[in-house]
Write a structure and sequence with these properties.
The chain is 46% helix and 16% strand. By secondary structure, it is α+β, with helices and mostly antiparallel strands. Bound molecules: FE2/S2 (inorganic) cluster (FES).
Length: 69
């Protein structure tokens, strides 16, 4: 599914780029060989970055609890 229509970037391409740990939405565009155009997808990419960050931040402690990394 395309998330960024302007650059024809799919959700899987963007997830791969986000998983590399880029610091800004524009860095994610650049990692995909693209750049921000209309910006309609920027909030979706920012949300993907927040979700990825949350995933990396919360680490199971092995006893069913989640602790900060
Ligand atoms: S939809 Fe991504 S920059 Fe326009």
């Amino acid at each position: 599914m395309f998330i960024c229509i302007c650059n024809a970037l799919s959700d899987s391409e963007l997830k791969d780029a986000v998983s590399q740990g880029h610091g800004s939405v524009d860095d994610v565009y650049r990692a995909c060989g693209a750049e921000r155009q209309c910006g309609c997808c920027a909030e979706i990419i920012a949300e993907m970055m927040r979700d990825h960050s949350d995933d990396n931040w919360a680490v199971p402690d092995g006893e069913g609890q989640v602790v900060a990394a």
